[in-house]
Amino acid sequence: MRLNGLICTLFATGWFALFGIAHARDAIGNSPEPENEALPPNLQPSIASSIPVLAQFKNGLLDYGYNLQLNYTGEVLGNPTGGVKQGATNEGLFEMSVDGDLNKIAGWNGATFHINAYVIHGRGLSTYNLFDISTVSGIEARPTTRLFEAWGEQQLLNGLLAVRIGQLSADTEFFISEYAALYIDGTFGWPDSMRADLPSNGGPNYPLATPGVRLKLTPSNQITFLAALYNGDPSGAGFTGLGEILDPAGINFRLRDPPFLLCEAQYRYSQSSDSAGLRGTIKLGAWHHFGEFDDLRFAANGQSLANPLVVGNPLVHSGNTGIYGVIDQMIWRRSGEDQTKGIGIFARASAAPSDRNVVDVYFDGGINFIGLWDARPDDMFGMAAAYSRISPDERERTLEQAFFVPGPVAYLDNEVSLELTYQAQIIPGLIVQPDFQYIFRPSGGALNPLNPFAGRIPDAAVFGLRTTIKF
User: Fold this and answer.
1) pTM for this one?
2) What is the 3-state secondary structure (H, E, C) of 385-401?
3) Domain that holds residue 67
4) Which of 85, 132, 362, 374 has the CB geometry, 3.0–4.6 Å to 193, for a possible disulfide?
5) pLDDT bucket at 37, cuts 50 / 70 / 90
6) CATH code: domain of residue 369
7) What is the mean pLDDT of residues 123-138?
8) Rounded to an integer, what distance in angstroms lies between the CA atom of residue 58 and that of residue 53?
9) For 399-411, what is the mean pLDDT?
10) What counts of helices (H) and strands (E) characterise the chain?
């Protein structure tokens, strides 16, 4: 069933693309000469803009309402020091996606659709070498071919309200920082606090999407409200860490697990090119999971779970809740029409109950230098750090084990990730990104699983190079 479903998904995605290609033939035949071809400025940077024939082809599809994207991200990462072992790995992510404007395709006003699928290959450095909470690469996942998102959206009330329904991922819309997107470490995408505290390796996030519905209310250009309800356990794996194994193709489409609710308010200011102030965005959000969550420290009878003689189940809490905030702020900008060039900073923070969440407090932040050199107007450089605190309840349970089981003791505290990165655009759609990361106290100071008597997992230095090609 899973294989058949995946084949149908890929067939449907390919059919949309081929249907658009067939419709685009006439447009391509009547297009201007290739040297005059240009892509619309609101699209993602694409290598097609540097290759006239590809630009002509892509514009032909756009004329009929199809935006076909083929993106590949490949990287090599290595840790010469630290972690449970040293070495290097390579991994890659190929994405095929189709966005459709149903007004152009079928005369359906205000309706759009989106489908994307991944082919993932390679081995992740965090999984095999580091054993940290935050994965040092945002594309790290088990090798497979899988469906990710597949949804339709309808705008209502002249664009005031938009309803999206289908296979959704929370990390594409919620808890997002514009400036944090520069960084390779996965925690600057979907934060460690969400990855560690929600079922199926962090709820609906890469690489596991899930059925859901999202409402978007936009009363003005400055203010946006988002609310989404998802199936709360995308793979059905709970906290076993087997999410990608139990849903290897992204087609479980689970509907009966306790739901996961996310709400976010966004305020944007000084966004237009003629604004006197510096552009910025503030986001405040909250989430609630309606499932049951085990206590980290106590059993149902009130005794410590660290005691191996305790008979019974953990104390169970009904539901789980968290809050978060995001700020992106330009602090200096270059003179000129493009107000995105300059220096920007970001910060994010979240908190959740310590009795049922391994990471109860989280912070990250950084500074980006964007387009500061005339010779390299599209390059970016940045420095960022992330802090994940191990909850006091998890820490106390670990320390209490020393009273019951002789042996090494793990003094859990926090994990801190630092990253320095430079993103160079060779041509539009071709990016090369050298990267350095340093992980302090991987897994918050957990003992080395390969040799507990050697103490905690050593701090790790990570060097990497990422290459991205976008069509």
Assistant:
1) 0.89
2) EEEEEECHHHHHHHHHH
3) 2-470
4) 362
5) low
6) 2.40.160.180
7) 96
8) 9
9) 86
10) 8, 16
